[in-house]
């Protein structure tokens, strides 16, 4: 007991208390070191989950928009392409040319005057078959056709003495075509005099003087210039016996004379100026070349 008492007992107590304090501190410090990385992991996991959710939400928001646009496209009416109107050239290029006949001219006249004349006046415009010459079947040249329809041309030519008038009037669509037709007349006309009746490069006064100078047998030209000469009294239809229409010829656009609006209008005016009356009186005959 004496030995024990000699020891410093208070020192042992202090040491034991210090050990107990350290033991108590250690377990409290260890969990604090363990919880920090766990928190970081949780934070990173939470942020990743939040980003994924945002992406998913964005995707979910974008997908229905695409569907809406597709639905809108499907519901929108599709614009129909306008069909191009077929022109005369389109129709004629796919079809074979057919020779004109007297019925074609008669239909053209009735159609043109249908809204301009009364029913009674339209009946008066109708021409008999006897008013027409035989039509070209697309095998003739101009000279061969005229020889067929005017077999007594030599006699008719000699009998003609009327100034400012022609016996044969050939109506075509242009100045160039007029020149071509005059060249084709050489085998038919013989000693007959032919005159060009078109507006290009020729003044109307010059043509009036030429018609008044001497006897002219054949006139070849456009309906516009022929009408102008009739109005100025430079040309009359007193001696006219044959009017031949350049009906079957077509230009570069495959248009006939009556397919060109301005030429058609002038031609109808020419028919009204005295040709139709001459046909009814059996003085004038019309041929479709």
Automatic annotation (TrEMBL):
GO terms for cellular component: 90S preribosome; nucleus. It comes from Dicentrarchus labrax. Residues 1-99 are annotated as: Disordered. Pfam families: CMS1. It comes from the Eukaryota. This is Cms1 ribosomal small subunit homolog. The gene is cmss1. Residues 76-86 have a biased composition (Basic residues). Residues 57-75 have a biased composition (Basic and acidic residues).
């Amino acid at each position: 007991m004496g030995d024990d008492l000699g020891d410093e007992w208070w020192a042992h107590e202090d040491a034991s208390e210090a050990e107990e304090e350290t033991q108590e501190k250690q377990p409290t410090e260890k969990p604090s070191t363990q919880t920090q990385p766990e928190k970081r992991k949780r934070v990173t996991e939470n942020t990743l989950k939040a980003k994924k959710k945002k992406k998913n939400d964005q995707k979910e928001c974008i997908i229905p928009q695409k569907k809406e646009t597709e639905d809108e496209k499907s519901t929108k009416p599709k614009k129909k392409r306008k069909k191009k109107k077929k022109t005369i050239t389109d129709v004629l290029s796919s079809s074979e040319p057919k020779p004109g006949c007297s019925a074609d001219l008669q239909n053209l006249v009735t159609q043109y005057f249908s809204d301009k004349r009364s029913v009674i006046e339209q009946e008066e415009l109708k021409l008999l078959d006897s008013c027409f010459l035989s039509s070209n079947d697309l095998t003739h040249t101009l000279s061969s056709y005229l020889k067929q329809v005017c077999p007594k041309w030599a006699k008719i030519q000699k009998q003609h003495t009327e100034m400012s008038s022609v016996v044969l009037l050939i109506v075509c669509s242009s100045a160039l075509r007029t020149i071509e037709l005059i060249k084709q007349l050489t085998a038919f006309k013989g000693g007959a005099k032919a005159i060009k009746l078109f507006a290009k490069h020729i003044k109307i006064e010059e043509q009036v003087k030429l018609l008044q100078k001497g006897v002219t047998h054949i006139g070849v030209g456009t309906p516009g210039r022929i009408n102008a000469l009739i109005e100025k009294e430079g040309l009359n239809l007193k001696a006219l016996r044959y009017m031949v229409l350049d009906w079957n010829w077509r230009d570069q656009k495959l248009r006939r004379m009556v397919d060109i609006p301005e030429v058609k209008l002038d031609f109808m005016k020419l028919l009204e100026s005295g040709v139709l009356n001459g046909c009814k009186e059996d003085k004038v005959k019309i041929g479709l070349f």
